Amino acid sequence: MANSYEMIAARVTGVEQITPLIKRFTLVRQDGQALPGFTGGSHIIVQMQGADGRRFSNAYSLMSDPADTREYQIGVRLEEQSKGGSAFMHGEVQVGSELTISTPNNLFALDPAAGKHVLIAGGIGITPFLAQLHELRAQGTDYELHYAFRAPEHGAFQDELNAGPHAARTQFYIDSLERKLDLAGLLGNLAADAHVYVCGPKPLIDAVIATAKLLGIADRRVHWEQFAATPASGGAFTVVLAKSGRELRVEEGMSILQAIEKTNAAQVECLCREGVCGTCETRILEGEAEHFDQYLSDEEKAAQQTMMLCVSRARSERLVLDL
Length: 323
Fold this sequence. Notes:
The protein is α/β, with parallel strands linked by helices. It has helices spanning about 85-90, 125-140, 160-165, 185-190, 200-215, 255-265, 300-305, and strands at about 5-15, 20-30, 40-50, 55-60, 70-75, 100, 105, 115-120, 140-150, 170-175, 195-200, 220-225, 235-240, 245-250, 280-285, 290, 305-310, 315, 320. Strands 1, 2, 3, 4, 5, 6 and 7 form a seven-stranded antiparallel β-sheet that branches. The chain has a five-stranded parallel β-sheet with strand order 10-9-8-11-12, with helices on both faces. A five-stranded mixed β-sheet has the order 14-13-19-15-17. It is globular and about 60 Å long.
């Protein structure tokens, strides 16, 4: 069931403008102790509170070296349709700001069974790979990084990658310069023991998954992560809260969590609102869910035992939940 996080009081010790839309934030514990250990691909939940009392909560990949837990680093892209979190981080957070962060969780870990790791990043999707690169180099494992972005000024951390120990294993693809990523060519030459990892915009993730399927690459060898909630699509449906007997209509474009909060029908904890933290996992008593989260495994989704209220919807007209 729902994941349990320890929350940590943190302080911002560094803010760097990396590209016009991306900032890097360095965080330490307020009590001066070391932060919890993590592995490449891990994320944390960052909770923010404005002077007006508004609260925001977003998930961000850890991009610093897992071997050094004196500090964490995250990269935050200013989203055009921000729900408030990225705008707050860019506009309000500065050196000395105090935030609350969660202990790390990893839904995008490197697979130890892989003989080679092929990393494909798009835009801000580079961040989890930066931590994984530290691990791969330390382990002496074979890897390569393919990083695509719109224009030279949007290539976050490109200079660091070019100047660092991963330069020979990194290739850049820049749309404005007509340097396109050829997924069919890349994945078509994949070794039998190689695994593919992709993080970035949904079109890139979908293209990698589709190309891998077309080439007959097993699903277990393709790993992906996207920190953006899938838009609530599909028609309206009814949710029944079994403990109170209340029935709620979840309209098109609305999440179950939003419908519950709008009517104060139940208390539901949710840290991320993006289907990655697991805190809003709820048991399904009747009906079937259309799962859009990244927290549950494919087997757990098929079992239809639980769902994430922040992003997932009903496949049936009526859904009864253990709330």
